[in-house]
Write a structure and sequence with these properties.
This protein is mainly α. Among the domains are: 3-50, no CATH class; 100-139, no CATH class. It contains seven helices and no strands. Helix 1 runs parallel beside helix 3 (33-51). The chain is elongated. 2% of the residues are buried.
Length: 144
Amino acid sequence: MDQKALELLYRSFDAPLTPEEQRQLREALEKSRELRQEQEEIATMRRAVSQNTVPGFEPFFAERVMRRIHAGAETGRKRGEDFSSSLAWSFRRIAMAGAIAALLLLANNIYRGGGISVSAIFAMPQLTIEDAWALNNPLEGELK
């Protein structure tokens, strides 16, 4: 198929051709069966597109969409506030229970240890420097 004839065919649907171009196109259509088929396919597609009546948007479509978006955002914020407030409420309950448990453990350790000291609070014996040195000292063997 001749490229110039194909370009003339496409242009003929959208713009008027000069008499010379019309003659060239007519001759090319007479000679080429493929070009005639292409012309028929283009004409069929253009008719189908022009007959297709897609309804447009109703008036104030954009405003309705924006209203729904804003309403959805408000609902999302409210859900977020509900979640954060329920999370804070749950944390308060857990924090309160943890604080009570810590106080009970502290009181128990103080009671068993006989007073307020680091060893009583942490429920472990008070280490002296000599005890800490003897626990794990690689230099101890070299000194003896």
